[in-house]
Amino acid sequence: MLFPYVYVPHSMDKMQEFIDFIFDRVWCEAPANPEYSLDLLCDCPELLEVMTAFHYSNSDNAYFFNGHVQRIHGLFVTLPVAEIQQLQAWYLVNNDIENICANDPASHLARYTEISTLNAGLAEQLASFFKGLYKWASNPPAAIKEKIGDIDNHYENFMALNSSGKCPFCGISDLKGIYHTRREAYDHYLPKALYPFNSINFRNLVPACNTCNSSYKTSKDPGFTPKDPCNSAQRRKFFYPYSQQIHNIEISVELDTSDLDNLEPENMNLGFESPAYSEEVETWKEVYGVEERYKAKCCGENDGKYWLEQMLDEWEENNCTPAEYLTTLSRLTQRRPWA
Length: 339
Prior knowledge:
Elements (H helix, E strand, L loop, with lengths): L12 H15 L17 H11 L4 H18 L3 H14 L2 H5 L10 H7 L1 H19 L3 H7 L2 H11 L24 E3 L16 E3 L2 H8 L32 E6 L12 E6 L4 H11 L1 H10 L4 H15 L3 H14 L4
Antiparallel strand pairs: 1-2, 3-4
Helix pairs in contact: 2-3, 3-7, 6-7
């Protein structure tokens, strides 16, 4: 990741607060309160108001939420204390995105496969709920929209502050911003297909260009190295998208200049240096296909090749040395690095 986003608080954060309450006070306390009723929500008046409206609604959207909450409560009723404590620990870790990215050795990142070994029926219901929750909350029923707002407004506020205009995961593609009537998709940084509990946590939701989101990252797991025939997957560090620490990555491009007219990916070497973040850089390169994409960009007739030809022409026309030209370019780059 070339640069971090600035986190933008929004009323949609309240959705995660509602889920926190349901998990802690409704599901985890289910053995002590085995009869499900809306009275279990009395200590969260806004959520009680919403779920009361859902209770008297015939819509599928209302049933999706209330139905899952009630069914999962019924499954928690039967769990022993030790299993509930295990689920509580997993819930806390899976929502601490910054610690996950740092690969904190004290934090065990849990996937649906592990919940399934604990209780297959519970894993199935949690997966159905959390995998569908983001889409549901992106176009919610009116009763909850009044409380959390909408995701388009979140995106407007987000892009007003994060205004570089470039996708931080590649640095190549433009992001739709405040001058567009459409928006980019939010990527689940930890894929919702693999990980429970954080599908509506906006510290796990990051706007990304379509190429990064849909062509390269897709459902890749940044938290683990890819499996190979000889080794099982291992935990790894990856960039926290809302870090307050600036990480500089020095990218070098070395070209075989013997035949620039026929420049191909095999004629170049790329270097990525960031001594304090070397593991994060390797994860970033693998998940987003960075090296392949940068080489393709350099070799494009109307991209890298054109820019290189333009530089060579300007050196000749201005009668200056490459070093002089690069000094000027360096000043511009420091002011606007993503351009």
